Amino acid sequence: MKPNFLTTQLHNMENPKRVNRQRVANFVLEDSHLFKDLVAITFDVENKVSIKAAWILEWICTHHHLEWILPHLDEFSAKITTVKFDSAIRPCAKICAHLATAYYSKNENQIKKNLTSTQIDIIIETGFDWLITPQKIAVRAYTMTFLYLFGLEKEWIHPELSNLISTKIMHESKGCKARGKQILAFIEKHQKSTL
Question: What is the mean pLDDT of residues 25-32?
């Protein structure tokens, strides 16, 4: 199967309903060589089909094979800053949250072994950009989650994140306020456990 086949399938997707995402994801799951093309289309950010590619990329990474992103982590971390459509930023933020969760998992996994400090730094920087710019609640929620997790090792993150939540995010929507309170509680608990 060729990339133009994948592009056609993405164009034909009407909406992000689970059944549609799974249907297109199945083509990639059956031919893993298409995953590279999926990543490339996701970051073809001037093309609106990149939104649908991001939906499928996130679906595969969060429901099937997070480790498939490993050979593409340099490209993923470098290019998430270029994503501009709201509907494509959300899936990228969700993938970042899954990467952080896997990285801090008690179980050994390939993400722990392969996610580099340079890639983490870029993801963190992008996360703070997402928090200081207008974004939808889902992006904020996933971003606060992965920044909290990366802040378990990088001490400067929690104070910055706490400040942003307290001064900005708590004054946005009810959903942002609820997730912000939750993350502030996690940070406080973590600080007490390290005293």
Answer: 90
In the chain, the largest separation of any two C-alpha atoms, in whole Å, equals: 56
pLDDT digits 0-9 by tens, 100-150: 999 999 999 999 999 999 999 999 999 999 999 999 999 999 999 999 999
Helices (H), the chain: 3-11, 18-30, 34-42, 49-63, 73-79, 86-103, 110-114, 117-132, 137-150, 157-167, 174-193
Number of neighbouring beta carbons within 10 Å of residue 84? 10
Between vectors from CA 104 to CA 26 and to CA 109, what angle results, nearest 5°?
Answer: 50
* Of the candidates 83, 100, 105, 106, the residue with the CA atom closest to the CA atom of residue 183: 100
Q: What is the DSSP string of 88-113?
A: HHHHHHHHHHHHHHHHT-SS--HHHH
Indicate the pTM of the whole model: 0.93
> Under a CB-based contact definition with an 8 Å cutoff, are residues 123 and 95 in contact?
no
For residue 173, give the DSSP letter: -
